[in-house]
Amino acid sequence: MTDRDKSILALRPDILGEIHPQSSSEEIFQNRTLRPVLKFQNDLFVEAFINYANKQKKQFYTLTTDRKLQYIENAIHRDIKFRNVLKGMVIGNFTIDEFTEYTQNSSNINKRMMNLLIERLKDQVQILNGVEAI
Questions:
Q1: How far apart are CA 88 and CA 53, in angstroms?
Q2: Per-domain residue ranges for the chain?
Q3: Contact of 119 with 38, CB cutoff 8 Å
Q4: Is 128 within 8 Å of 50 (Cβ atoms)?
Q5: From CA 34, how far away is CA 28, in angstroms rounded?
């Protein structure tokens, strides 16, 4: 294991979610890698979304809570450029072994990654409400 890998792993919170013998490889990767990385990068994701909302004419801040939740989902699903930036924030925190595992099944892992990130941002919609840049 390289020094980079050791440093990355040392920064992460503990494993989130349970890993069972019957867990799929994707579920294991989700709980062992994706959840800790998403938790570690949470503040950066919030700031990235605030920046995104501000660049989109700040319409996010005028929406009802239900519409804000839909806006978050649409932003990540439909704006490929924004989604790729978020994906890069996650992948950049993988170890070499995790990256190798990711590349073997990137499509399914990307779906899990984006769904977890959407839920994470939705859970923080109240934080996103009052942070509009002037």
A1: 19
A2: 3-12+29-129
A3: no
A4: yes
A5: 9
The encoded tokens of residue 107 equal 């499509």
Per-residue pLDDT of the chain (134 residues; tens, 9 = 90+): 789 999 999 988 877 667 777 788 899 999 999 999 999 999 999 999 999 999 988 889 899 999 999 999 999 999 999 999 999 999 999 999 999 999 999 999 999 999 999 999 999 887 776 555 44
pLDDT value, residue 78? 95
What's the sign of the alpha-carbon dihedral 127, 15, 92, 82?
Answer: negative
Q: Is the dihedral of CA 34, 39, 44, 49 positive or negative?
A: positive
- How far is CA 43 from each of CA 52, 62, 124, rounded to the nearest angstrom? 14, 23, 11
Per-residue pLDDT at 88: 97
Q: Which two tokens stand for residue 88?
A: 């890069």
| Contact status, residue 50 vs residue 44, Cβ threshold 8 Å | no
What sections of the chain are H helices per DSSP? 3-11, 25-29, 35-40, 42-55, 65-78, 80-91, 96-104, 106-123, 125-129
